Amino acid sequence: MPTQKGTCRFNRGSVMPNLTNDLSQAEFISALPENEQQELFKQALSRKLEVGEFLCHQGDIWPKVIFLGSGQLRWSILSITGREFVLFLVDAGRVFWGHSIFDDQPMPASLMATKQSWVYLWPREIILPILYRNPKAMWEITKTLTSTMRRAREIIYGLAFQPVACRLAKYLLGRFELEDDPNIERDITLGELASRLATSQEVVCRVLYQFQSEGILEVNRASISIQDLTALNRLVENG
After folding, report:
1. Residue 128: which domain range?
2. Closest Cα to residue 72, out of 232, 235, 196, 173?
3. Do 218 and 109 fall within a single domain?
4. Domain contains 3
5. What stretch of H or E contains 118?
6. What residues does 112 pair with on adjacent strands?
7. Are residues 182 and 132 in the same domain?
8. What confidence tens digit (pLDDT) does each residue in 51-85 have?
9. For 184-192, which contacts have Cβ atoms below 8 Å and span 24 or more sequence positions?
10. Same structural domain for residues 51 and 117?
11. Predicted TM-score (pTM) of this structure
């Protein structure tokens, strides 16, 4: 994982026209009056992120909120020993609130682009006055943050108490449900998969080939083909 910190330079007021409707539907933004939405669009800072580029680093003071117009971001944390754990992915159309915007404390994890991404950002000095004028939007933010906390709890519970075989089965099932295809493209490295499952590459490799020997899946360089969906579901249910 790269450790060099770079500064993302954003452009002001360049919201892409085809994304304006998506922005207006996004969580708290949809709770704002039309004039306040237009003010947000005007004040938005935008930037294209390349794969591997960081939006913020663990330990940064980052009092900002973003809307991800396209692409995908990875929210990951470094352990004391330097191992990276992927907590979750931020997909296009989602709003992400920097923790520092609420308490001026360092960010607990890092945001990095896993795909080429378009990001729209508002610093605290722009977003707070608008929120203070619109309690309904504040309520939407509270609901969003509560949902994120529940999601984080499930992730942490899974990392702490579910064996790697169960976590891998859950990941594969998630990909299958998302793409509706038993042939899952190997679009991330073994190391990245290990980071998402909070384990080592060696363990992931061993479990993959254990699954293959049991006829649950077939592994090759380009894809993982699910052969026994029932067995994967049983692993998750028993985990």
Report:
1. 11-160
2. 196
3. no
4. no
5. strand 117-123
6. 54, 74
7. no
8. 999 999 999 999 999 999 899 999 998 876 677 88
9. 184/223, 184/224, 184/225, 184/226, 185/222, 185/223, 186/221, 186/222, 186/223, 186/224, 192/86
10. yes
11. 0.65
